[in-house]
């Protein structure tokens, strides 16, 4: 397939209103799409329906990361009547294609499915493809092939092997009438394309300034430069991001909270970059009950304050030399897809110089404040001639109340043949295996080739949890987090278990379990630290004995070291530099050994409970 020159397209659609940013799949709808002819050409119904699929996918932004934003529309073949829709509304939840098929019911048979992006069967069970096949879909129109190498083209090939007609924009559908649809499909997953190309998260620099280019008065006072409507838009931008970055000056001067306040379940991580660690003992960011905080600093800086913040639940990450490029590489390793920079000019300039800022949102307020020493949005870049100025591309203008929002790209989306990043030489910590004699298979996010090994993969398990009662848990993560409170003789503890069990996604269950553990330490079972490994192993065994394709995937790794490549979880994961205990990898290797032993000796019976 020829490369797509994505920079030819404008990539700045307006953000959808908050009311459209639902965490739940769209209800079944019936819409008739009609297209009127123009003097130049008659638009294809495919265009309108692909645009609808891209619009649905955009509702996933910030909710499904690091997965792509998926939308699916199913329409009747001849009339274009929409009979089913769906979008991926949280990491590890039901795929868009299955939602659309369930909404359409019998009306899906013989219909056409419109997908903004090729399905990504991350879990080895081909749910998206099988849903379309079993529903009797006769034709599939795909906006883009999957940008990750290990998934690219596989779903398309599988659909075609089932006799379904598949048309891909830019390949089978090359007319100029499809340019708008292609542009929308590219735009809705632009962060993933940037990440795949540059191996850093997609980063947006946001600031608000006066007409004379000031972000604060000479005194440092900055509340408020922009209007309330503009600030509402900022909350939406935060809600679409995995992390928000500020510098130490912003913490000292403004004491920000940096929460999304958009009503969704997604909560971005707050990251403070401070080279000297000259930070206040008390700050709103140190309250981690509702949002997680990471402080990135230089190695050895203020160990006393590091210890105090760690006691409050703030994570401190040390770098040999603190710079934006290395911090973004770290965020990449953590699986972040989009990062919003809300820093001052002193940090914005080195971030731009390092090439990690891809887009700019500038809110310009109709105010003049003056001041020779008043701060500006971007500090010194070393440019002495106007010809050296950085030009934005694909610029958009939007009036928001009294303010003007100017947005554009510093780096256009690249000419991309994407590849999936792989972990670099992760050392084994399992003494039973030598990293020099065996392959190392790392996994972390559910989009990885072996992502089904993750606790976040959407594979329900049926397990007992109290007094012999059985329940269906949506994922291993749901089961694990809830068991922090199982067995406690308290109605509140039982309520917490139910809340975690019914969480919308594994991501939400994990966040809820960790938060409730901090908020209700007395309700956490006293033996949790000693029993949590057994709890995890029981859940893993149930999962891999319930699903034959997962069992086969685990057996296929025989002879390889399995490493949960979390850079920050030093208990379950391998850590940033291999310093973690990798207990999840260890348990999977232990389970693999048991399964292989049972396979070699059929007289042995491997049961789900241990």
Automatic annotation (TrEMBL):
Chemical reaction(s) catalysed: 5-amino-6-(5-phospho-D-ribitylamino)uracil + NADP(+) = 5-amino-6-(5-phospho-D-ribosylamino)uracil + NADPH + H(+); 5-amino-6-(5-phospho-D-ribosylamino)uracil + H2O = 5,6-diaminouracil + D-ribose 5-phosphate; 2,5-diamino-6-hydroxy-4-(5-phosphoribosylamino)-pyrimidine + H2O = 2,5,6-triamino-4-hydroxypyrimidine + D-ribose 5-phosphate
Subcellular localization(s) per the UniProt record: Plastid, Chloroplast
GO BP terms, alphabetized: carbohydrate derivative metabolic process; riboflavin biosynthetic process
Family of the protein in this entry: In the C-terminal section; belongs to the YbiA family.
Lineage: Eukaryota, Viridiplantae, Streptophyta, Embryophyta, Tracheophyta
Pfam families for the chain: NADAR, RibD_C
Keyword entries, A-Z: Chloroplast, Glycosidase, Hydrolase, Multifunctional enzyme, NADP, Oxidoreductase, Plastid, Transit peptide
CDD domains listed in its UniProt record: NADAR, Riboflavin_deaminase-reductase
Gene Ontology, cellular component aspect: chloroplast
E.C. number: 1.1.1.193
Protein name as it appears in the record: Riboflavin biosynthesis protein PYRR, chloroplastic
GO molecular function, a single term: 5-amino-6-(5-phosphoribosylamino)uracil reductase activity
PANTHER family: 2,5-DIAMINO-6-RIBOSYLAMINO-4(3H)-PYRIMIDINONE 5'-PHOSPHATE REDUCTASE, DIHYDROFOLATE REDUCTASE FAMILY PROTEIN (AFU_ORTHOLOGUE AFUA_8G06820)
Lineage: superkingdom: Eukaryota
